[in-house]
Amino acid sequence: MGVMIRKHSEVILIPKTETTISKKRKIKMQYKVIVEDATQGLMGGGAMESASMALAEKVNESIGEGWEPLGGIAHSEDRQENPYLLQAMINRNARPVEQTNE
Question: Residue 40 CA to chain centroid, in angstroms?
Fold first, then answer.
């Protein structure tokens, strides 16, 4: 299982992911989903525009940290029909790791 981190309106899911490239070496890859709450807008409406700008800022920050967007932006709603914007991200800055006999 992975790690779930909650910061303000952002939820980042980082499950442990491994891709085997040979019997002795593995590459570790990280995956996270940035979630932006689109129910809170600036005065006068524009909640979706505000959420889009906030999501873009978080995605750009993650890109600067070595993350890459995986696919496009997704839109979802919770049970109360509150909208959310989501962006999947991967970090390919993986280092080969020698496999140990455990």
Answer: 20
Task: Report if pTM > 0.70.
Answer: no
Mean pLDDT of the region 34-42:
82
Which pLDDT band holds residue 28 (cuts at 50, 70, 90)?
Answer: confident
Structural domain spans, the chain: 3-81+91-97
Contact 27, 96 (CB under 8 A): yes
Phi, psi of 99 (to 5 degrees): -80, 135
Q: Burial letters for 74-100: b for 16+ Cβ neighbours within 10 Å, e otherwise?
A: eeeeeeeeeebbbbbbbbeebeeeeee
- State the Cα torsion 72-85-19-6 to the nearest 10°: 160
